[in-house]
Amino acid sequence: MYDVVLLTLGSERDAPGGCGSGGACCGGATAADTAPTSQTDTGQAKTDRTNAGQGNASQADAEQCATERPRVPVLACADALNARGARVEMVTARSDAEIDAVLARLDGPARPDGLTWPDPDSKTRLVVATASDGQLRAVLRRLVKRYAPAPSKRPADLPGNRTLPDLPPVAVLPLDPARGGTHRDLAAQLGLPRDPAAVAAAVLDGTPRRLDLLRNDGGSVTLDGALLGAADDAGRPLHWRARVEVDDTILTDGAEPLLACAVGNAGGYATLDDVTLLTAPDPADGQVEVAVAVPVVVRSAWGRKRVRLEVRRARGRAVSVLPREGKVPYLDDGVEGELTRKRSWWIEPGAWAVWSI
Asked: What's the rounded Cα separation, in Å, for the pair 249 and 243?
């Protein structure tokens, strides 16, 4: 029978420092997360101020972290696992080091090249109890940091289109039932179970469902997607400029104003208000879908001017966004930040996996 670790991320209130060297395990972002060399997801994720209609108005509630006392779904999942004979341990991690201590149980045998590698035959299975996609991302970021080899140590058995091995599968236990409704989280988008007993069944009886992962040159990862842009206090979108490239396709060179840019692995940012940005985001197709919304002035047959929104799209392996002026606010897996310099994302096909029935 399996050993199962039920991992909950503790809040910033429970211990100084928290996950990510000064931030909370909630997976939020501070200025450190916007620097190209950052290796941390820090800070408390905040309420979305930028995309009315995206379903993030209740993000602040969804981002509430677990406290010292296990949440009811965690206890229910533990009971269901115990009833099936699994050996269950509940862990609340309040720092990156504490997350890493849990992930070390997924390590494989020592390799001749000295690399830390996941064990494909591990009898330990991991359940991540999440109040938000940002919390799940915080755990996946630590998995990537643990197992991704340095370029100078790239082993011969690593697939040519990847920079890291197959990451160990994780089960997702959503702590916020509301995020499975109108305002869908990643678990809802993937059709993963939300009931604790069903999650337990997926852990013990399911199979790994492999998904694409977006890495970025800021040292973090993206599971769902990112939305760049902002609105003023009245909800009116603000114009900004950036050069956006997808592989060899230039969606905009930075000379014209933008209202939004969506970088999609899954469909969390597929629409903005009533505008369709992404048409077919698929977290298992090996590509990232990118869209920019550009206001274009057109003249009617009567000579009257009006503004229409032009959406340009492209698909590929990598995307870069280079702001032309000032700071560009963004949401990445529901985590708020500001982009001040070039940011690149690239796809890692099938790099991570979830337990699924």
From this structure: 11
For residue 191, give the nearest of 218, 209, 175 by alpha carbon: 209
Alpha-carbon distance of 267 to 242, in angstroms, equals: 23
Contacts of 69 (CB under 8 A, 6+ apart): none
Is the model's pLDDT at 33 over the cut of 80?
Answer: no
Confidence of residue 291 (pLDDT cuts 50, 70, 90): very high
Element (H, E) at 7: strand 3-9
- Contacts made by residues 102-111, CB under 8 angstroms, sequence distance 24+: 102/5, 102/7, 102/126, 103/139, 103/142, 103/143, 103/146, 104/146, 105/3, 105/5, 106/168, 111/155
Strand partners of residue 313 = 291
Q: What is the pTM of this model?
A: 0.82
pLDDT of amino acid 93: 97
CB neighbour burial string for 66-94, b if at least 16 within 10 angstroms, e if fewer: beeebbebbebbbebbeebebebebbbbb
Q: Which of 51-60, 148-157, 286-295 has the lowest mean pLDDT?
A: 51-60
Which is it for the CA torsion 48, 54, 56, 58, positive or negative?
Answer: positive
Pick the closest to residue 277 from 288, 287, 265, 292 (CA basis).
292
CB-CB neighbours of 165 under 10 Å:
19
